[in-house]
Write a structure and sequence with these properties.
The protein is of the alpha/beta class. It contains 8 helices and 12 strands. Helix content is 36%, strand content 25%.
Length: 253
């Protein structure tokens, strides 16, 4: 197995972004794989580690990283926005990869991968979304806020929202406002590259109908949606990870 290297990349403002990567095996011509994690997730999650090991076994290059305010990276989560985290992703990918990459985006990472592909399609070989959640701040999170939480945001700039996966998390007014600016589903989204979406129908966070909305928004010749009837939001069961591996393998030359 190829040895994984780790490091930290400084943004222009000095905030350090943690990353880990495996170089492609010599002679491998396939695109590298980049994993983009979800909201309040990090690069030590089960999908990221599965892809690390899977790519190493295939001889493929692989990159994982933490957005600012996430995992091992610097910065405060409360100061982050979709636009800033997309900029973090673009900086790391530009600095640490060469040529087109297959972007594998989980939840919020699916949104960020769509932003990157829209801005710089020549650097994206394909997209794989896992419970992809583009525009979730406006379409999923915002409507779920209570009047009391909205009042908190208006008064304090943030509110705390209960989580199924741990401690309550802060939602800021800046996150919601920036999310509106980063929307990708409010107009046709031309993507001249393969797009694969994996979506659980038992997902409590991202309804499977949201995946249909993504498919409808994308203008491209090669878009496929795989619905997993009993799949949850994380899609981290052994059978889910095996499906992820098969999905990526089918995209390789």
């Amino acid at each position: 197995m190829s040895q994984e290297e780790t490091g930290r990349l400084a943004r222009p403002d000095g905030t350090e972004l943690a990353w880990a990567r495996i170089p492609a095996k010599q002679g491998i011509q396939a695109p590298g794989i980049v994993f983009l994690g979800g909201f309040r997730s990090d690069m030590e999650g089960s999908k990221a580690l599965f892809l690390r090991d899977w790519c190493a076994a295939q001889g493929l290059g692989f990159l994982r990283f933490d957005y600012s305010g996430h995992g091992q990276s610097g910065g405060r989560f409360e100061e982050g926005t979709i636009g800033q985290w997309a900029a973090d992703a673009a900086l790391v990918i530009e600095a640490l990869t060469t040529g087109p990459q297959i972007l594998v985006g989980s939840s919020m990472g699916g949104w960020i991968s769509l932003l990157l592909a829209r801005r710089n399609p020549e650097r994206v070989a394909a997209l794989v979304g896992i419970a992809a959640a583009p525009d979730f701040t406006a379409l999923l999170m915002g409507p779920a806020l209570t009047e009391a939480q909205r009042a908190d945001i208006a008064r304090d700039g943030l509110t705390l929202v209960p989580s199924l996966y741990g401690d309550p998390y802060p939602i800021t007014g800046a996150l919601l406002a920036d999310g509106e600016k980063q929307s990708v589903l409010d107009a046709p989204l031309p993507l001249p590259l393969p797009v694969r979406l994996l979506q659980g129908m038992a997902d409590p966070d991202v309804p499977w109908q949201h995946a249909i909305r993504i498919v409808e928004a994308i203008e491209g010749p090669d878009v496929q949606l795989h619905l997993i009837k009993d799949g949850d939001h994380r899609l981290s069961r052994p059978e889910d990870l095996a499906l992820l591996g098969r999905t990526i393998a089918a995209l390789l030359p």
